[in-house]
Structures are given as C-alpha cells and as structure tokens.
Sequence to fold (469 residues):
Amino acid sequence: MSELEANNIRGEIKRITKEILRLAAERRSLSLKIGDIKSKLGLEVLDRRIEAELLNDSLKYAEELGLDRDFTRRLISLLISDSVKAQEEKVDRTKEVGLREIFYMALELEKSGRKVIRLEIGEPDFTAPIDVIQETCNALREGKSRYLSSYGIIELRRGIAERINTIYGTDFKPENVLVTGGGVMAIYISIQVLSSLGDEVIVPEPAWPLYRQIAEHLGRRYVPLRTSLEDKWTLRNGMLQENVTDSSKLLIINYPNNPTGRALSLHELKNLVEEAHECGLTIISDEVYSQYYFHDSYAPSIVQILDSGYVLVGSFSKMWGMTGYRIGYLIGEKEFIDKAAYILGLMITCIPEFIQRAALKALQDDEYVKKNIEETKKRINYILNMLSRNSLIKVYPSDGTFYLFPKIDLPAFNSSDFALNLLKEHSVAVAPGSGFGPYRQHIRLSAVKPIEEIKIGLEKLNQAISLLQ
Fold:
C-alpha cells in the first residue's frame, strides 16, 4: 500500500468522524425536544426502561456489524449520559446555591467579624486527641516525613485490619488495606479501579454530592435511585433490579447515611447487598460514620455479609476529629488494593508518615471516640426535640452520623433560596437539600456545635420558617 492510499483512507476516517459528531449533535437536539415534552407533562428526565431498550437494541445491532460489545455499551452509555445532562440543564436553568457556596459564604462572613452559627458543616467541633497531636509532632521531629510505599506503613495497615477484625470477626491482613488521603481519595480511586469510561455508578439518594461529582469527572454515568422521607429513606424491594442495565457496574452505599442519618439493620443491609450481588454489581460501602451509630457500638457492615465483590471505605476524619489530617483507608481484596495503590502512587506518591503515625496512635484511643459520639447523640436528640415544636417540619429520627435531614412542609419551599436568606439575614448556615439530590423541601442540619449555639440557631431557623407562611 502506498503512502497516497494511506492518506486517502485517513481522509475518509476524518470525514466519518466528523459525520459521527454531526449525528451526535443532531441526537442531542432531538433529546432536548423530548426534554421539552417531559417538562410539559411533568415527567422525570430519567427513564431507565427506555434507556435499557435503547441499549439492548444497540447491542444487537452492534453484534450484526461486528462491533465489540463492551465498546458499544460504553459508547451508548456516554450518549445517554449526554442526553440526560442536556435535558436536566434545560429543565432547571436556575443556578442553585449548594453546600460549598454556603460554606464559603459563611467563612467570609466570619472573617468580616460576624458571628455565624454553623449548622451546615460536616466537620465535628472536637479536634484530634492530645496524644495524637503529640504523636504527629514527635514523628516530625524524628524525621518521619520522607517518601514511603504507596500502600502505607505496615503498622497502620495492620492496625486498621485488626480493628475491623475485632469488631466484625473478619480475617483481614495488612495486604487488604490501603491508606488513602481521606475518604474522598478512597472513593475516587475505588470508582476509577472498579469501573471504566461510560460505566454506570448507581447511588441511592439523597447522597453525599461528591459521589456524583467524582463519577461524572471520571466519565462514568451517575444513576440515582430516589428514596423519600415518607418511606423512611429506604429503597423499595426490587428497585435496584428495575434500574440495572448492561452498563451498570457499581453500587455506592453509605450507611449510616449522609445526609439523612438513616442506617440499615443487618437484615436490611443483607437484602440490599444480596440484590446487588445478583445484579452483578460491585459495591463500594462508605462506612466513615460506622461508629456514629445510636443503636449499638457499631453499625452493620458489608464485611458481615460478603467475602468478595466489595470495597469498604473508612476515614479518621469523623470519629477522631482529624478532618484536616486527610487520612482514610480502603479495605478489599489484594488484587484491588494493588491496583488502587498504583493509582494512589500516581496521584500523591504516598500519605506522609507523620500523619500515618498520628492515625496509628488514634486507633489506640477508642474512649475518646465513644465520648464524642455520646455528645453527638445528645445534640441530635436536642435538635429533634426543638424541631418537633414546629408543625411545618418533618424529620426522620437519625440512626447515626451527626446529621438530620428535615423536610419543610411548604409546597413552594426552596432550600437553596432559604439557606441563602437564612445566612444573610439571620447568620445561620444550613446545607440546602437540593445539594443531595432533588430535595428542595429539605435542609441538612449538622450537630457539630455546642447545644447553646444549636439552640440559638434553631430558634432563628424556626423564626425564618414562620415568615414563609
């Protein structure tokens, strides 16, 4: 074959590629028209039945053309994701204020000298135990600040494995543990290792916003499963099965849950996990609030149910007040840990040893954790009592975490507008429910301040709600 012939073929490839892009643009235009119809009829943008039909038809046609099934699945998933995003943007053009915007606004107001009652932040008001702080300083003085293995120091990995083994009767080894830069990095790496471009990541909502942001940043399709206060934030039986397609690869669960405080009983968790397992889904179980559980010492865990097919995400941020230390961990099969360690090495090389030494010290101080959880439980109960005095507020009584996710029972209530006004006019910061999914009638409250401050904040909250009637 001559160079001229090769160039001619390249020219044809370029022409076809442009035609593919033109057709993609035409497809998006048609999707927007469907979005208009859905909006007029009051229908949801997401329609998994239609999506599944399109995917199955496409896979059959791809087989006739001799195209790779996995390539086709990912391509169709990306096209569907683009259509959904375009429809959602058209249906809701209003830019809403989210948790991060409220957080930064509150910071700026505090810098200007105004006293703000911070009920929006997911950060405990206690710091790390004094011996943990001292261990950090000692490790720095001893020069423990050099490059390390991406996996983490063996002592900490062993300590984490032994802690989980003691609690749940498992048999994890250090090789099953990876030390990460907080829970965020743990989630990011897990999604990256366990799925590919165009794969679907299924998440029950309301949910921590970063699940969606990370999944979409990595080119995955985020698929929410909506639950409601009226159903006690519980997935309906069979709901997972109804929403799974050939592109579905991951299920992210977070119990006790941020923002609702909902935890599953071992029986409920077992049913959900078994359904996910039957659907061929790998589970990422975010258990950073596992000890913030008000019915027992520890919340039920996925490690009590499965021997494989999952990864567990943990963190030192919440239980020991070590948010700024940025240290968390992953537990899973060795093959997964090896792949995750490789990616961590590309991102950050390693977690600093002095921080890992601090975390190792923290593992020895369970009494500190218990004391703070008891205080959090008192605060949660106090908030529940205060909220119960307002007939417009409905709330699920939290099973754990330091959050409540009350619903303001006013039809036109918009949590984004309300949170912004509450901060500007009353100097109280709350998280808009719309940041956790389509929950505009909800706000998230965090029990991370002394009861005296919470009391003032809730009085102002009730006052602001009463003005909306």
Remarks:
- The radius of gyration is 24 Å.
